[in-house]
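#structure-requests
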Amino acid sequence: MLDASPVPFSAPVDLPALPDAAPAPDWRQALAVGDVVAFRFPVADVEGGLPKTRPCLVLEVDTVFGA
């Protein structure tokens, strides 16, 4: 069962350092099933702007023309 007792805001919190957000030098080599990537879907925007970047789950990875 989860403990839902409130934690005071003055309690010190040690957060782990965030990983480097820079992409891998060749991200295509590291891409694997289960990864979540950002992708701009070609969906028409009501305001006429660019498509929004949305998270996507990688379901399959194929090599095409050696790339």
